[in-house]
Amino acid sequence: MKAMILAAGLGTRMRPLTDHCPKPLLPVGGKPLIVHHLERLAAAGITEVVINVSYRAEQIIAALGDGSDFGIAIAWSREEIPLETGGGVLQALPQLGEVPFLLVNGDIWCDLDPARLPPLGDDLAHLVLVDNPDHHPAGDFHLDDGGRVHAEGEPRLTFAGISLIAPALLAGQAAGAFALAPLLRRAMTAGLVGGHHHRGGWIDVGTPARLDALDRRLRAERG
Q: Is the peptide bond before 82 cis (omega within 30 degrees of 0)?
């Protein structure tokens, strides 16, 4: 299975840290944020990774190269302007192939082992969900007792930014910038989205304060 890391955002919420450094390269726990993803993917046996880049793309490419330093092969998907989640994935589909792939938001940290995710079967997506953080108390989706994900319903959980995606989820979409969330909600209505509740470590590294909190946590764990 291949993976894609979404890393083309402008990092607006992380300013001023991202004025001169793209968000994926911000250091946390002694290494760039995106390197945590690469190492976890390699440990899970996922060795082919597509990364989309736009803002300060050359900095990211220069830092990571072909991925060989991390035991993986990186294919780069360049976007002249950020294409959002859906548009970015659609452009990268030729590099990802025709089978389900792992999709990871570049601005999160999670201790999930990707190798433990179940196969998609007939579903179009499988979402990893987490407890609602303080900054997002309303959550995103409802996970029922049967492991199905719904756009409506209680209680609600937060999308962790990690999912298995079938290329068919994007069938019929035109090239350009668009979000993935409406396609996921449509698939939920059709009963084609599964999920599970990850109860381990997770953080949305969306602000300098949360980046600092994660840095302190990882350094403390490392001793």
A: no
Q: Give residue-wise pLDDT tens across range 2-46.
A: 999 999 987 777 777 778 888 899 999 999 999 999 999 999 999
Distance CA 182, CA 86 (A): 9
Break the chain down into helix, strand, coil percent, rounded to 5: 35, 25, 40
- The count of C-alpha atoms lying within 13 angstroms of the C-alpha of 201, restricted to the half-sphere facing its C-beta, is 10
Residue 13 CA to its chain's centroid (Å)? 17
Model confidence, pTM = 0.96
DSSP string, 106-164: TTEEE---GGGSPP-TT-SEEEEEEPPPTT-TT-SEEE-TTSBEESS-SSEEEEEEEEE
Lookup: tokens for 80: 């002249």
Q: Would you say how long the chain is, in residues?
A: 223
